[in-house]
Design a protein that fits this description.
It is a single chain. By secondary structure, the protein is an alpha+beta fold. It contains 4 helices and 5 strands; from the N terminus they run H-E-E-H-E-H-H-E-E. It has helices at 2-61, 86-92, 117-120, 128-135, and strands at residues 63-69, 75-81, 111-114, 144-146, 159-162. It has a 5-stranded mixed β-sheet. Strand 1 and strand 2 (75-81) form a beta hairpin. The structure holds FE2/S2 (inorganic) cluster (FES). Residues 87, 99-103, 105-107, 109-110, 133, 146, 148 line the site of FE2/S2 (inorganic) cluster (FES).
Length: 180
């Protein structure tokens, strides 16, 4: 009797083992499905990240060399990221280029003189607003520009900009030098 009960128990255990295996194999099936779904996503993420890193790297390293010649004749050569205005670059490097209207074409205090006409010719033509401001600038020359309108680009690598001896703040009006 005991033996029959034991055999019955063994059989029941075997029968239970089969269904008990099913979830394992199903889990394995689901893992496979999951992997198949994840792999393409991983590939997309990988390729996107690679391309983005490459682009950022390119932007990070794209800088040009610009030399500012100060009023006293001293020179400062700085690295300027492409896309940055000469006014911003000057301020970031403590160069004495005023920029009273902060680039809104309402003054001429950011007046710079491009020292080499070949570089001057590589610039975009000045807009009417810039020409209007330049007409009122002190020490206007044939290669004068407003520093806030000159944007760094690869062709300008090596450009030299002279700071005029004086600037006039005529349009940010109400400007009256404070007595010291
Ligand atoms: Fe005023 Fe350039 S900062 S016009």
């Amino acid at each position: 009797m005991f033996s029959r009960i034991s055999q019955l128990g063994t059989r029941l255990l075997r029968e239970n083992r089969a269904p008990a295996n099913l979830p394992n194999s199903r889990s394995s099936y689901y893992r496979g499905q999951l992997r198949r779904r994840l792999v393409p996503e991983k590939s997309i993420l990988f390729s996107t990240a690679t391309s983005s890193t490459h682009d950022e790297g390119t932007q990070d390293t794209e800088k040009i060399s610009v030399t500012f010649v100060n009023k006293d004749g001293t020179e400062q050569t700085i690295s300027v990221p492409v896309g940055t205005s000469m006014l911003e670059a000057a301020h970031e490097n403590d160069i004495e280029l005023e920029g009273a209207c902060e680039g809104s074409l309402a003054c001429s205090t950011c007046h710079v003189i491009v020292m080499d006409v070949n570089y001057y010719n590589k610039l975009e033509d000045p807009a009417d607003e810039e020409n209007d401001m330049l007409d009122l600038a002190f020490g206007l020359t044939e290669t004068s520009r407003l520093g806030c309108q000159v944007i760094a680009k690869p062709e300008l690598d090596g450009v030299r900009l002279s700071l005029p001896a004086a600037t006039r703040n005529f349009a940010v009006d109400g400007y009256v030098p404070k007595p010291h």
